[in-house]
Specification:
Number of domains: 1
CATH topology: Rossmann fold
Radius of gyration: 17 Å
CATH architecture: 3-Layer(aba) Sandwich
CATH class: Alpha Beta
């Protein structure tokens, strides 16, 4: 049986396309016949909204409920919090209740591994689990990285601030040393590249700056109107604009994600500097 790959998509800076990427990668993996679970680990619920739940804060059962149950030691029958999406994958929604969970985790034993305990229950039914992290380095993100095999880092192509990535990498290093020794950087990928960007030059620049320590993916996600529209379109880019540049880019990114851990080059994703 193929081992489940748990992948967090994280960057402490907001507006870099994390939720869009989780949705499109998840949909693309499902199109390739993989069993996929998406977790919204952001109290803002942006991924949940993209997946058609327009009022996530009114939802009675979300990731917050299951995390609270784990903290309280409550055993449940089944997993009614897992919903199915029309594009062939499952997902667990989130809403603002997750903020209260994050605050409460401070006083909990093994607070960094609550989410891992949940995933240990459910991941066996999936090939991939993708976690959409909130734009911070707080306890929810620490929980996500502690539960993950890999972290993908989307970086906006028109401002590549090294210090923004350095802090996230430092957090990942600490988690690997202290909590989750299997955590690796799956890849850095560029998002929101304008037509004026010379993509090859951007990719080469990132590889020059980061490539010695981090695997930089070849795919660059363009900034297109059609891609921006999927936040309210209730469909991934593969259905919304299947022949467009963004769809082709995400198809390429999905292929790269499927190769994570399969190629010898992944050894460069080791967090040691």
């Amino acid at each position: 049986m193929t081992k489940t790959k748990v992948i967090s998509v994280a960057n402490q800076k907001g507006g870099v396309g994390k939720s869009t990427s989780v949705y499109c990668i998840g949909a693309g993996l499902a199109m390739n016949g993989r069993k996929v679970l998406l977790l919204d680990v952001d109290p803002q619920g942006d991924l949940t909204k993209m997946l058609g739940q327009r009022k996530p804060h009114d939802m009675p059962l979300t990731l917050a409920n299951v995390m609270n149950d784990i903290v309280a030691g409550i055993e449940t029958n089944g997993h009614p919090e897992i919903l199915h999406h029309a594009e062939g994958f499952d997902y667990v929604p989130a809403n603002r209740s997750l903020s209260s969970v994050e605050v409460g985790l401070v006083n909990v034993m093994s607070r960094e591994t609550v989410l891992r305990q949940y995933l240990d229950e459910v991941k066996k039914d999936y090939d991939y689990v993708l976690l959409d992290c909130r734009p911070s380095l707080g306890m929810l993100v620490i929980n996500a990285l502690s539960a993950s095999d890999y972290v993908l880092i989307p970086v906006q192509a028109d401002y590549l601030a090294a210090e923004d990535m350095t802090e996230l990498i430092g957090t990942a290093q600490s988690i690997r040393r202290q909590i989750n020794p299997k955590l690796k950087i799956g890849g850095v990928f560029l998002t929101m590249a304008n037509d004026t960007n010379f993509r090859k030059e951007i990719v080469e620049s990132v590889k020059e700056n980061y490539g010695k320590n981090l695997p930089v993916m070849d795919t660059v996600i363009p900034a297109t109107v059609r891609l921006a529209e999927i936040s309210t379109a209730d469909k991934s880019i593969f259905l919304h604009d299947p022949k467009g540049r963004a769809a082709e880019a995400y198809r390429n990114l999905v292929r790269e994600v499927m190769n994570i851990g399969e190629k010898q080059r992944i050894k460069s994703s080791d967090l040691s500097r």
